[in-house]
Amino acid sequence: MRFPQSSSPTSRRNLLLGTAAAGALFAAGCTSNENNDSDENSKQAANTANDKPGKAVTIGFAGPQADHGWLNAINQQAKRRAKEYKDVTLEITEGSNDTAQQIGQIETLINKKVDVLVILPADGKALTQVGLKAMRAGIPVVNLDRVFASPQAYRCWIGGDNYGMGLNAGHYIGEQLKGKKNAKVIELAGIDNLELTRQRTAGFNDALKNYPNIKKVGRQAAEFTVESGQSKMAQLLQAHSDFDALWNHDDDQGVGAERAIKQAGRDDFLMVGGAGAKHAMDAIKADNTVLKATVLYPPTMAASAIDLARALGQGKGVGGLAELEIPASLTLYSAVVTKDNVDEYLPTGFS
Length: 351
What we know:
Elements: E1 15-17, H1 19-28, H2 40-46, E2 57-62, H3 69-83, E3 88-92, H4 99-111, E4 116-119, H5 128-136, E5 141-144, E6 156-159, H6 162-177, E7 183-189, H7 195-208, E8 214-221, H8 226-239, E9 245-248, H9 251-263, E10 270-275, H10 278-286, E11 291-296, H11 301-314, E12 329-332, E13 336-337, H12 342-345
Parallel strand pairs: 1-12, 2-3, 2-4, 4-5, 5-6, 6-12, 7-8, 7-9, 9-10, 10-11
Antiparallel strand pairs: 11-13
């Protein structure tokens, strides 16, 4: 995924929630804080699951151009979730990777006086001012994944855990190889000048520190594209004739990596992908390639962002939590999908 901005995995503002836990909370629904009982415990008890239609809410959704499978899944998740609510109207922009154009689209939504904005900025830093503009106009903003430069530009942030992706990929590989002496691993990373790539590599390296029998012997940075995945993987294969595991940061570039692996006739190692594409999950389920797992960066965060926006528009909290307000931040968990649990996650796989 091409993310110019990413949240810090160590931010104290982030409330860590597993994907399943977050899904359970939002599927349970958000409930009104209105309660005539003055007893505080009764007020909190009222904040339980309820999906009944409430106040009509118009949600403006602005994201970047869907030029990647994950980004397209973000748009689709938001649209599908909004349709599930009879009280939600979704105003969605065409999406753009041009910051000036996206700012214009968001300003149009502000002028339409939508009740809440959900924004996945093409560049979080560059779009901070328009986030601030919306908040100052009284329109709460749900900042999706690529974080704005100021917390004043949004009411709630929700996104993935890049450090956690690397950490969980490293632990999975470590457990698979813990009985092997002098094991070797390589890494096919994303775009190196992106903070998210550095976070994923840092998490991976930190996990491997727990396995003294494993050494990372190679790393190449690709560009989150099929073509770059194929060319960079070919270079890795040529440079390393013997290794035991590969972690690839992104399932889209993994398509190219798998082509290079097949062309080289290699099947002597295991591969772990990243993000959770459907083709990767299908391969994991078939269990007939080197790809044995993928670490999620769940696009379901867009559906949860719609849930949060609806709750904000209706003055509600989150079902399943005692607090009367929605959290300031939600970091989704990077689950590892293997053949043992792939059926559970297949519905979230994106094309």
